[in-house]
Amino acid sequence: MMKNTPTLSLRVPEPSGRPGDAPDFSHLQFDPAGAVSRPEVSTAPYDMRDHAFRLIRVLDDEGKAVGPWDPKLDPEVMRRGLKAMILTRAFDDRMHRAHRQGKTSFYMKCTGEEAIAVAQGMILSREDMGFPTYRQQGLLIARGYPLATMMNQIYSNAEDPIKGRQLPIMYSAKDYGFFTISGNLGTQVPQAVGWAMASAYKGDDKIAISWIGDGATAEGDFHNALTFAAVYRAPVILNVVNNQWAISSFMGIAGGLETTFAAKAIGYGLPALRVDGNDFLAVWAATQWAEERARTNQGATVIELFTYRGAPHSTSDDPSRYRPGDEHEKWPLGDPIERLKQHLIALGEWSDEQQEAAEKDAVEQVRAAGKESEAIGTLGQSRPSVKTMFEEVYATEDWRLVEQRREVGV
Hints:
The chain is an alpha/beta fold. Helices cover 34% and strands 7% of the residues. It has 10 helices and 5 strands, in the order ααβαααβαββαβααα. A 5-stranded parallel sheet has the order 1-2-3-5-4, with helices on both faces. Strand 4, helix 7 and strand 5 (301-306) form a beta-alpha-beta unit.
């Protein structure tokens, strides 16, 4: 050991609160709503580096839309967005209860994150391809995908559109611009970049969009994808959903205390936006900016959506073991549904009575879909035909499959 040097120590990041502690968000510094400038879409990434460290916000504490990022949406568009978020939450609640009732083996809620998938799903076309992770069910719901079909996939019943080949909630719906979800974290980002590169190579007009959690940014796939996106100016939007927690580790384990996740784009020469993910209008505006950039051959944009995972990571998780129990209620950026509701009421375009009616209608829609799906069967009550496991794998069946099919009798 060298003389006069301290003993080395390993630093392990720790969150600001653990079970039993009072939630503490004093370390978070946010720009006031409307304070962050809106650069021209053609701005060079080097000249807008500060947008990776600030926070784009549109809705202020009184529910007013302020500043240069206000997308000035028609009230009817905002009402559709609000209803889609309400429906997404109602769907989540019923499916979570279905798991507790033994009707499915697994479920994942997106409580507190509804504005992200709903706003982005409304902006982009179904012909653009979304490469989601497992908390973007709002993308399908905002686009009118049948709720009963989603439930069939969750229950793995005889009408499961994926024929029992995927874990519950890992949907696949090409006609709705929803690429098959993968349980391997990070894979969707290089896939999105590759799809976007192919679209550009063909001279098409479709773009791609992907979502990844804060924890999965530590995967090599994420960094490989950023390299290709930058080098080939792929027409793609790369979202990092920073919801503060992976399954049991907080965002600091993935490097969230050293810098922002948006800042990871800077080293690759990509533009970055950091956005209040609980602000429907801010998500809309930032996505619109990135969409225009992609469609005009100016390349990819990385968007960090700053939000909070209110529910457990999944039905296999117990967040009370690693974070303060009421941390979600104290999240300083509020709830996306309540914030958009407040904004519409302030405009005179919504009311508490309409909110109550919308919530009741959402519950009824989900209940009706549940009856339709459960009539087909829940987990173990019905299942896709056994013969489907031999199909859609090879263009021409291998002799082993022929033999296995004969043994099974199908």
